[in-house]
Amino acid sequence: MKGVFVGLAVASLLGCGGGGGGSSTGPTNGGVNTPPPSDGISVQNNMFSPGTKTVTVGTEVKWAWNSCTGDVYSGQTCQQHSVTFDDGTGSATQDQGTYTRTFSAAGVYNYHCSIHGAAMAGSITVQ
Fold first, then answer.
1. Which has the closest alpha carbon to 66: 96, 38, 26?
2. pLDDT tens digit string along 36-56?
3. CATH code, domain with 50
4. Which of 7, 76, 90, 121 could form a disulfide with 112 if both were Cys (CB 3.0 to 4.6 A apart)?
5. Which residues lie closer than 8 Å to 118 by C-beta, 6 or more apart?
6. Is 127 exposed, middle or buried (0-12, 13-18, 19+ CB in 10 A)?
7. Structural domain count of the chain
8. What pLDDT digit, counting tens, does each position of 61-92 carry?
9. Burial track 88-107 (b if 16+ CB lie within 10 A, e otherwise)
């Protein structure tokens, strides 16, 4: 009988946890935000990051939406944005995903979000 009590006491102590040094948090975006490649552009709430970029002719540039805030536990809010060039081409209005464009001619390509206008703008200089 004494062995049963000792076993229960040990199990009770082990079940209490503690003794560690780490911490754990849940995911902050539930996988909705899409990190851009290191040479890409992040579409964030009310800004493109970086806002300007210089590339060579033939370069493919990728925009990735990172406009969701909150977490999977308390709910997320994702803002709608677009990448709209002055010539009218560009992405759909969306709250997640990516958009890619290859620049085949030298020049300055100005773009903006169709929802936020000049307050959310950027440019690509192609050399």
1. 96
2. 677 899 999 899 999 999 999
3. 2.60.40.420
4. 121
5. 112
6. exposed
7. 1
8. 999 998 888 776 767 788 899 999 999 999 99
9. eebbeebbbebbebebeeee
Instruction: Give the domain range for residue 48.
Output: 30-126
- Whether 19 is covered by a domain: the verdict is no
Token code pair at residue 117: 């206008």
Token pair belonging to 119: 């307050």
Residue 2 lies in a domain: no
Q: Are 42 and 51 in contact (CB under 8 A)?
A: no
124: how many CB neighbours lie within 10 A of its CB? 19
Q: 3-state DSSP: the chain helix, strand, coil percent, rounded to 5?
A: 10, 45, 45
pTM over 0.90: no
**φ, ψ of residue 13 in degrees (nearest 5):** -65, -40
User: Is residue 92 assigned to a domain?
Assistant: yes
Task: Return the structure tokens found at 63.
Answer: 């925009």
Exposure letters 56-75 (e unless 16+ CB within 10 A, then b): eeebebebbbbbbeeeeeee
